[in-house]
Write a structure and sequence with these properties.
Elements (H helix, E strand, L loop, with lengths): L1 H8 L4 H7 L1 E3 L7 E9 L6 H12 L6 E9 L13 E7 L7 H11 L3 E7 L3 E2 L4 H8 L5 E3 L7 E3 L1 H8 L15 E3 L8 E5 H6 L14 H12 L2 E3 L8 E2 L6 H4 L2 H12 L2 H23 L3
Parallel strand pairs: 2-3, 2-5, 3-4, 7-11, 8-12
Antiparallel strand pairs: 1-4, 5-10, 6-12, 7-10, 8-9
């Protein structure tokens, strides 16, 4: 199968990557209910504000939640100013290579705290105080959810985003002005995905081989979990999340081969897709045995 051969020819040795990482980890061997993983390159101005909003949400839940930034960039690390003792930070040297968001996700899972659930969350998305409690209500009969309602985010204007980042305004999740915040077009495949540990293992983790930059990796992962588990957006009760304004990095970093991988996968039948995910699960099993099942 073409996609299996492509993946096998470019497999990443995660133990070797981890050995080169610079990290600040807090109580990594303790099992938690929820592990929040945020992949980052640049956009440092967003880090402090996303920490504040997620910390506020953690304070409003009885779940044990860990928080890990995984940065993939050239030296030196940019996010180490996050001095909060409870924030884990992992820096992966990129050696001049493009940003690999999937690599960040997988490193955060394999070498961060073991959890029952994993939240893969973008650094420019703000969450409300009742975020985690509402997620768990939506997860009652699900294996994974996109953590906002109607498959669309609320988009903050550049002016509103700047004011929030500078501490001159707060994020209004319900009583907002249409001039400052507007609903996006529905259909986003990623942004903030909450998934059970078992489904994450079953789909073969994130596709670290095929995608770089801000690409179609979210769509690929979305398609995999849609096939293998019960998946929906957070509509009952609804959750509103706010996306801060930034320039468009997608067109500058997406390669044609990224789209090729997604097209090949989408053209496969369900049996072939499951065979592909089994092959990826088998590949990650060596690292999962070493790290993900630690108690």
């Amino acid at each position: 199968m073409e996609l299996i051969k492509w993946a096998k020819a470019n497999e990443i040795d995660y133990a070797a990557v981890w050995a080169r990482c610079v990290k600040k980890m807090s109580k990594v061997n303790l099992k938690v209910d929820i592990s929040v993983i945020i992949p980052v390159r640049g956009r440092v101005e967003y880090h402090k504000i996303v920490v504040e909003y997620i910390f506020n949400a953690i304070m409003h839940t009885d779940k044990k939640v860990s928080f890990t930034f995984v940065e993939h960039d050239d030296m030196p690390p940019k996010h180490y100013w996050v001095a909060k003792s409870w924030v884990n930070t992992i820096f992966i040297p990129s050696d001049g290579q493009p940003f690999n968001k999937c690599l960040c996700h997988n490193i955060g899972v394999l070498y961060g705290p073991t959890a029952d659930y994993y939240l893969f969350h973008d650094t420019d998305i703000l969450v409300p105080p009742d975020f985690f409690s509402k997620i768990m209500l939506n997860m009652q009969d699900k294996d994974a959810v996109q953590t906002f309602t109607k498959r669309r985010l609320l988009m903050a204007s550049q002016q509103k985003s700047d004011a929030i980042i500078k501490g001159l305004a707060t994020a209004d999740f319900h009583n907002y002005s249409p001039h400052d915040i507007k609903p996006a077009i529905p259909g986003a495949p990623g942004g903030s995905i909450f998934v059970t540990r078992q489904l994450l293992i079953d789909v073969g983790m994130w596709e670290d081989v095929f995608f770089t930059g801000y690409s179609v990796e979210d769509q690929f992962f979305f398609n995999k979990i849609n096939l293998m588990g019960k998946f929906a957006s957070c509509d009952n009760p609804p959750i509103e999340l706010i996306h801060l304004w930034h320039g468009n990095g997608h067109q500058e970093t997406t390669r044609q081969s990224d789209f090729d991988a997604l097209d090949i996968y989408d053209a496969m039948n369900d049996t072939e897709k499951r065979e592909y995910m089994i092959s990826r699960k088998e590949y990650f099993s060596r690292f999962i045995t070493q790290t993900l099942n630690k108690e």
